[in-house]
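Weekly structure sync, notes
Attendees: PL (lead), two postdocs, one rotation student
Agenda item 3: pending single-chain targets
PL asked that the sequence for the first pending target be pasted directly into the notes so everyone works from the same version. It is reproduced below exactly as submitted, 417 residues in total.
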Amino acid sequence: MKKYLPHIITVLITGALVALFLTGNNGTKKNKIDDRVTLRKQDKIPYGTYVAYRGLEHLFPKASISTNKLEPGYWDSLSNYDSGQALIIVTGKFSPDEIEMKKLISFIENGNDVFVSARTISYSAGDMMGCSINTSDISSYYEETIKVEDSLNVSLVTPPFGKKTSYVYPGKKLDASFREFDEATTELLGEDEMGRANFIRLRAGKGNLFIHLAPLAFTNYFLLHKDNIGYYEKAMSVINPEVTKVVWDEYYLNKKFLDEREEPKKGWFSVLMGTENDNGKKPFRAAFWLLILLLLLYVLLEMRRKQRYIPVIKKPRNDSLDFVKTIGRLYFDKGDHKNLCRKMSAYFLEHVRNKYKLSTGTLDDNFVKNLQFKSGAEEQEIRGIVYFIKYLDDAPEIGHEQLSDFHKQLESFYKKA
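Predicted structure, written out during the meeting:
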């Protein structure tokens, strides 16, 4: 059974992968709509702006139509000093820095129009324009998980337009509204379904700055839905019809903002794990986790089967201690008590030198006091040990009782110290 187990697991895994893949495709192939919000002029998908860009040549027949990918002030299709030009910016987030905003305002003051359609506007830009927008219900514009179909509803007000008409489509909403703006210097041009301002005109010098907060109103899906192309034509009519240059800007569409994380490029494994079938399921992800589970089960079973009994290792005996005891018994049995006492005293002095770092060359009162201070033993006990060590040199012999008393003194010292 052991040698066949890997083959059995391999067959099970292969069968699981094939089964998951086949059951994910039930034979009913569906055309999945590309619902990415790109706002790019070359994209013909629902949320691209191909129709809006191609319509510029009909709305401005006397003007040259071009695109720009450079920051304000460094255009190659516009002049910073000429008039009669228009810059159209359709992006998710309009986030110019202070220098870029000043260059845009200078461009407008020279007699040009700038039309901005964005869902969000940075705080610095809104502060310079004297307006702010409602952001409480706005999630990240660039989240790929946004799939809410919320029927965008926008309208143009009168004046300057004719009868107020609402334009609706059953697609993504992704719009915003103005929370406040200076009504004395700002002209209201459009509203959302709640009657909140979402399209205004700001005048600067000889030109105009238009701020529009529903960029999806310029996407292919919205413009091709019923008569919504009329909204686009009327919204663009606020731009000077006599302009000689109309530039579709892509600089802010491509710009990476400091407050947003750039998504890392996905590798082949991430793409494979995210692949969906016609039912919106991810068979490769499910098969991968099934594979991990089977491998984990296999490893656990193998570990349990192959684990051996681990014997208890006994603590090694202290042979040195046995040797000392043997030598001690040898001297004791021979009756050479004096020699045994000298061995015991030598061991005691060696112990003092190693543990308490005291010199044992002179066993005087200073030695006794220092040893008592460092060891914590009683001074009288230490004096008794020192006295007996000195006595050994002159004593002709040591009796059994003296040996026993000396041993008790040393044992008492070792326990206390």
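Discussion points:
- Residues 283-306 form the longest helix (24 residues).
- Residues 5-30+278-306 form one domain.
Action: rotation student to compare against the earlier draft before next sync.
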